[in-house]
Inverse folding.
């Protein structure tokens, strides 16, 4: 106890002077009003003050010193017991109060009943038996105890009292937070007030008890000792405890929903207030029967009793709230501090204005007694009347206290017990006697407290019951204690809102000290000292969604929008400071401190668990329908979901996600959260934000978002395969030979769904830019997954799902048609006009892909919903191109077997001649000299069913059939030669022919491949810049359409039969096969010069006026007319791109419309007939469901193969036979020639020589089987090949030069299957 505390009431003047000097040099606590029981409120010694000091302080009051309230002091007096104790925190209730010093000592004072002071039941005092139970009646008033230090704690007070950071007092209990972050409690356990699980004799329901033992000494609250608490607040019978990570726990009597758990039930142990999970709470406060919390973003939440409007929610007074709700009137006002009184609430807004609401008879708004205030109202004194912004605020049972920027302490409200600290009270004429037992109450407006010593800084104020205190800093003239600077940050901290730690600055400091930064890293001691604090900061921030989002929030604009939805709809990039997020992660990794990295991993895991729990609760509050979601509070729910999405995004960027040691625990949690996000959030917020819009973002998209999931999938799949292999080894080969199961778990399936979300974002960004996607399709392929699953099983599940959806659609259509017929009959005499006016709602169909949903902003695909993924074919973007190709070939094989079986059934017995329509194969005989004509006739004469049979080709030359047996190689050559003829450049086309063939072709409606009018120039045009082919405008005559149909059929047949073609169609051709509209980017790919010209035209647009429009019109000199060269006549023709387009000049305002229409006409309208024929030929052969697994770009690769021959990959997959191996000298020469001497064109020619195709198949060179076989010793024979089996037959030449020469000759003559 301080030196002044031992001074007698009648101390000498010298002793009083010494005490006063001590008080001036130390932190001093001044009090006024009533701090304890009524019978001692008028005593001088109530606050441990001397008579001389009391008289001296009373002289400074402007009121008469002879007046007294109804008990209590009307002017501030020093609490001598705290002189020299350096008090950092004060809290109390009607019957007792407590104080905490900067050393962590605890003092309690007041009525010693129910064990509320923590000294047991024998009374207080360091020199008394604190554990003695005198069996006093716990419900009597108890004797008054002056401020006395608590020294004992634990069971029966056998242990020492730990250092304490803060405490809070209820009506008959006290709760403290230790410096280690643990909770201790003592006092009345009734209703679970002490939070010890009902082990202290409480009945748990708040009822009366008799003869019950009261745990009168501090003991730890059990069940939460692994949680680090930072703040605590007590109401009369309940407690709110705040963790360092912004979570709120509550326990005690739950009447009127004061605990925030959704009901009135009491809680005998701390439970999380789940409704505040997203807010990042920085301060809690408790009134008599209501509670409040302050979010890190300045939002105020209230719950509990609302008899006097103390929740500030407006509306009907008396409607209690069992769960926290944000105060709506403050949604556009950020608050920095809150305080709860008995039945009123206060808040300080940014800028220092004070808002108040609640019971009006005690003047909470500073205007005297008024009606109850149900919504926040400004207290005019602060910033309006006096322009003194408030710095701190506190609330008693019926009065309020605040400190201001000028150092003043002001009070307002009831003053019947001197609680305003400004002189004698008087009865207020408007006070309702019935409100307080018939006694009148003096209610006053805002005014300064009278009697505080001048020239001393107010560190903090406190208020409770009918009393108040102000803690003052030492005087400027006195000698300051040596540790004053350290203590300045401690005084009043426990009653202020928590602040977010400077995480980036702290991490960089530790990183530099540890050698992970730019510094020399030689300050290991500093790193060791700061690392624990950094680990705690990381744990606090990264485990809290609210702290994380607010801590990395972008600076807000100075003017807030009036519409809250504007902020909610802001792009996540605008809402988050992504640069700071990445910099913080980088600094944390650079610290090289295991405790810091571990803290980050644990915090992220807890964060993701909380987000998952919140989403689980969310889905219990909504209907099963994904559209028209109904929730109790839509606005709050939207805030929660935006916070959740932003927090998950920050966690997603963590480098620990990419680390195998942590990723296996974090990534499954992450994908579980993303998968559960509401559809509208994914569709309207997440996907647009993830959309890749530039190169820098593409790198981030892949490295931070995509790579962690791909790596996790690969690890889990490989681990599962190893486990299955180990089981198979135990049970024997029979089990291993059985057909594989799905091969993946639920986590891998969830990962695949999230990858599909990222894929949709990539495509969405490309559409927004009007360009190609920044990341290629293969970036989203999960190769390990594609290899592990049973593709046939996935395909069959998918087909069944498609059939079910089609059946549902048919039933809905039939029901709708029946309803329309019935409605028409009921209308009867109403007539057709009335029937037409009746609105008919089309059936609501979910989009097939997430990208479709993002385009329209409506609906959500089934495959993206939790539990909606029945087959990976629903999200084909995750399947490798090879896997899709295998699915397509599997589907083709099913159709081939079906058609072969049907042919056998139609023609039983007897030999079927080659080429017959009844054959089980699609057999085609072609003459090399008339290849195009023979192919056209063969395709035109076959039905779509015949075209789906397995294909066999027989060549003839000069009337002699070639001996090559078609095991695949002949078919490959057929397609290569056919495509070469179809896409032959005009200058190389033949002009020879005879009249007989021309007449025949005219009569059959087929085109002649050898005439000038029927050359490829009549169907395709070639762009000189790109070398790509496109359909000629106006080529709509029958022969040209027949040729276009043949091109489509040839490409379809090649896909159907697994043959790669060397075609040069642009990407837009494959886009249009899928029904997608062309874009300017497509035109730029086909014709770079034309595309650049149109882009330059768009750049001419600006914000100019009418004069600029005239300048643009003169510069462009174009109308809305599309000109083209007619394919048949060669004349230049034109078509209007819009009605009266020839009279509409291109101006600045309509330039975008002109470009869009020009693209549409060039790539659609002008070639519509020829492309329709091409599409008909293609879909007539290759129109199965499996085709829709491919994107247009992938279909292009499937048709044309990979344009690059990867020599290293080909060498890795090569096998050797006939005596060759990888070390054979001739083999080494061969690879050196291919890698060093051959050009890209020569490598393609080599591949064509060996395989019959000049390009590797889709999936790349590594997917190509390749065999190098020894065909004998050194000789002059040329190398040969079995193209059916991709085998190169190579003599073992004696020199590298001879190998190079012989191979070049063979490649130059690689065509035809001659006699051997």
């Amino acid at each position: 106890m301080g030196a002044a505390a031992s001074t007698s009431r009648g101390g000498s003047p010298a002793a009083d002077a010494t005490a006063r000097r001590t008080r001036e040099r130390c932190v001093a606590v001044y009090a006024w009003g009533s701090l304890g029981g009524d019978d001692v409120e008028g005593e001088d010694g109530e606050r441990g003050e001397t008579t001389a000091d009391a008289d001296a302080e009373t002289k400074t009051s402007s009121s008469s010193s002879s007046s007294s309230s109804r008990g209590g002091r009307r002017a501030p007096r020093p609490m001598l017991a705290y002189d020299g104790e350096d008090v950092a925190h004060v809290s109390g209730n009607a019957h007792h109060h407590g104080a905490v010093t900067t050393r962590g000592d605890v003092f309690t004072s007041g009525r010693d009943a129910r064990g509320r002071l923590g000294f047991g039941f024998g009374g207080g005092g360091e020199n008394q038996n604190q554990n003695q139970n005198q069996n006093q009646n716990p419900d009597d008033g108890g004797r008054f105890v002056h401020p006395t230090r608590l020294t004992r704690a634990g069971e029966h007070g056998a242990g020492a009292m730990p250092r304490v950071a803060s405490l809070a007092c209820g009506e008959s209990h006290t709760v403290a937070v230790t410096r280690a972050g643990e909770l201790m409690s003592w006092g009345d356990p009734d209703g679970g007030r002490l939070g010890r699980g009902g082990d202290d004799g409480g009945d748990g329901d708040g009822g009366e008890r008799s003869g019950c033992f009261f745990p009168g000494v501090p003991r730890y609250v059990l069940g939460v000792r692994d949680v680090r608490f930072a703040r605590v607040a007590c109401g009369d019978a309940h407690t709110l405890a705040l963790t360092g990570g912004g979570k709120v726990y509550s326990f005690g009597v739950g009447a009127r929903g004061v605990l925030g758990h959704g009901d009135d039930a009491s809680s005998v142990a701390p439970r999380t207030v789940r409704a505040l999970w997203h807010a990042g709470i920085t301060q809690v406060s408790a009134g008599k029967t209501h509670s409040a919390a302050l979010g890190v973003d300045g939002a105020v939440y209230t719950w509990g009793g609302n008899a006097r409007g103390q929740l500030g929610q407006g509306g009907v007074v008396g409607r209690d709230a069992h769960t926290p709700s944000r105060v709506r009137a403050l949604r556009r006002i950020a608050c920095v501090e809150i305080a709860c009184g008995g039945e009123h609430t206060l808040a300080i807004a940014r800028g220092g204005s004070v808002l108040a609401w609640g019971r009006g008879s005690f003047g909470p708004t500073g205007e005297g007694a008024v009606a109850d205030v149900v919504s926040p109202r400004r207290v005019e004194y602060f910033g309006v009347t006096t322009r003194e912004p408030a710095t701190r605020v506190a609330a008693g049972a019926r009065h309020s206290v605040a400190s201001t920027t000028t150092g003043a302490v002001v009070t307002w409200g009831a003053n019947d017990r001197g609680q305003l600290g400004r002189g004698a009270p008087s009865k207020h004429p408007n006070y309702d006697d019935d409100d307080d037992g018939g006694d009148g109450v003096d209610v006053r407006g805002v005014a300064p407290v009278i009697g505080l010593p001048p020239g001393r800084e107010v560190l903090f104020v406190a208020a409770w019951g009918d009393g108040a205190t102000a803690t003052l800093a030492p005087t400027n003239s006195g000698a300051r204690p040596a540790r004053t600077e350290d203590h300045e940050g401690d005084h009043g901290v426990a009653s202020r809102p928590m602040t977010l730690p400077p995480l980036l600055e702290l991490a960089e400091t530790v990183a530099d000290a540890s050698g992970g930064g730019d510094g020399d890293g030689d300050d290991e001691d500093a790193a060791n000292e700061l690392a624990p604090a950094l680990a705690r900061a990381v744990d606090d921030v990264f485990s809290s969604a609210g702290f994380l989002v607010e801590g990395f929030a972008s600076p807000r604009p100075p003017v807030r929008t009036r519409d809250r939805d504007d902020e909610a709809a802001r792009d996540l990039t605008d809402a988050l400071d992504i640069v700071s997020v990445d910099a913080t992660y980088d600094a944390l990794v650079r610290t090289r401190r295991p405790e810091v990295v571990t803290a980050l991993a644990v915090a992220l895991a807890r964060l993701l668990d909380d987000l998952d729990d919140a989403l689980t609760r969310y889905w219990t509050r909504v209907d099963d329908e994904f559209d028209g979601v109904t929730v109790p509070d839509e606005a709050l729910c939207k805030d929660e979901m935006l916070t959740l999405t932003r927090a998950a995004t920050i966690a997603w960027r963590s480098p620990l996600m990419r680390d195998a040691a942590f990723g296996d625990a974090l990534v499954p949690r992450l994908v579980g959260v993303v998968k559960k996000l509401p559809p509208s959030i994914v569709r309207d917020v997440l996907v647009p934000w993830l959309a890749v819009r530039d190169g820098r973002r593409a790198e981030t998209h892949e490295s931070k978002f995509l790579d962690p999931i791909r790596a996790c999938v690969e690890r889990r799949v490989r681990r599962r395969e190893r486990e299955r292999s180990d089981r198979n080894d135990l049970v024997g080969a029979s089990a291993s030979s059985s057909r594989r199961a799905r091969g993946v778990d639920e986590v891998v399936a969830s990962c695949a769904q999230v990858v599909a979300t990222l894929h949709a974002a990539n495509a969405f960004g490309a559409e927004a830019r009007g360009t190609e996607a920044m990341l290629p399709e293969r970036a989203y392929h999960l190769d390990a997954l594609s290899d592990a699953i049973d593709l046939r099983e996935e395909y069959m599940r998918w087909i069944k799902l498609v059939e079910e959806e089609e059946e549902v659609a048919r039933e809905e259509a039939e029901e709708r048609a029946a309803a329309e017929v019935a409605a028409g009959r009921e209308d009867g005499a109403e007539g057709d006009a009335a029937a037409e006016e009746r609105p008919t709602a089309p059936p609501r169909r979910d989009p097939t892909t997430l990208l479709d949903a993002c385009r329209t902003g409506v609906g959500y695909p089934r495959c993206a919903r939790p539990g909606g993924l029945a087959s990976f074919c629903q999200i084909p973007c995750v399947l490798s191109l090879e896997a899709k190709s295998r699915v397509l070939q599997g589907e083709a094989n099913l159709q081939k077997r079906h058609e072969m079986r049907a042919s056998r059934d139609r023609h039983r017995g007897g030999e079927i001649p080659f080429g017959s329509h009844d054959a089980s194969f699609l057999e085609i005989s072609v003459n090399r000299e008339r290849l195009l004509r023979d192919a056209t006739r063969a395709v035109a004469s076959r039905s779509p069913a015949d075209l789906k049979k397995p294909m066999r080709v027989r060549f003839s030359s000069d009337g002699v059939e070639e001996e090559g047996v078609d095991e695949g190689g002949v078919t490959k050559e057929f397609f290569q030669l056919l495509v070469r003829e179809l896409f032959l450049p005009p200058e190389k086309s033949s002009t020879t022919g005879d009249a007989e063939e021309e007449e025949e072709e005219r009569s059959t409606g087929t085109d002649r491949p050898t005439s000038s009018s029927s050359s490829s120039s009549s169907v395709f045009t070639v762009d000189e810049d790109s070398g790509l082919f496109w359909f000629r405008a106006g080529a709509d005559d029958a022969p040209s359409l027949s040729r276009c149909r043949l091109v489509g059929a040839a490409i379809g047949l090649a896909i159907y039969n697994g043959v790669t073609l060397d075609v040069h169609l642009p990407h837009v051709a494959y886009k249009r096969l899928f029904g997608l509209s062309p874009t300017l980017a497509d035109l730029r790919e086909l014709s770079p010069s034309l595309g650049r010209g149109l882009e330059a035209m768009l750049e001419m647009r600006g914000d100019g006026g009418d004069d600029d429009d005239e300048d643009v019109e003169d510069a462009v000199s174009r109308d809305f007319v599309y000109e083209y060269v007619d394919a048949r006549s060669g004349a230049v023709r034109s078509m209007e791109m819009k009605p009266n387009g020839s009279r509409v000049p291109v101006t600045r305002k309509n330039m975008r419309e002109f470009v869009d229409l020009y693209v549409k006409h060039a790539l659609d309208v002008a070639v519509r007939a020829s492309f329709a024929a091409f599409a008909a030929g293609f879909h007539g052969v290759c129109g199965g469901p499996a085709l829709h697994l491919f994107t247009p770009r992938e279909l292009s690769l499937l048709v044309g193969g990979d344009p690059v021959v990867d020599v290293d990959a080909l060498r890795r997959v090569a096998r050797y036979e006939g005596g060759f191996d990888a070390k054979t000298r001739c083999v080494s020469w061969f690879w050196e020639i291919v890698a060093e001497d051959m050009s890209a064109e020569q490598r393609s020619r080599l591949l064509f020589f060996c395989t019959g195709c000049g390009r590797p198949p889709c999936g790349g060179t590594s997917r190509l089987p390749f065999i190098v076989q020894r065909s004998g010793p050194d000789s002059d024979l040329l190398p040969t090949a079995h193209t059916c089996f991709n085998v190169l037959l190579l003599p073992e030449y004696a020199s590298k030069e001879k190998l190079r020469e012989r191979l070049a000759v063979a490649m130059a003559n690689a065509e035809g299957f001659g006699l051997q």
Observations:
- The mean pLDDT is 79.
- The radius of gyration is 43 Å.
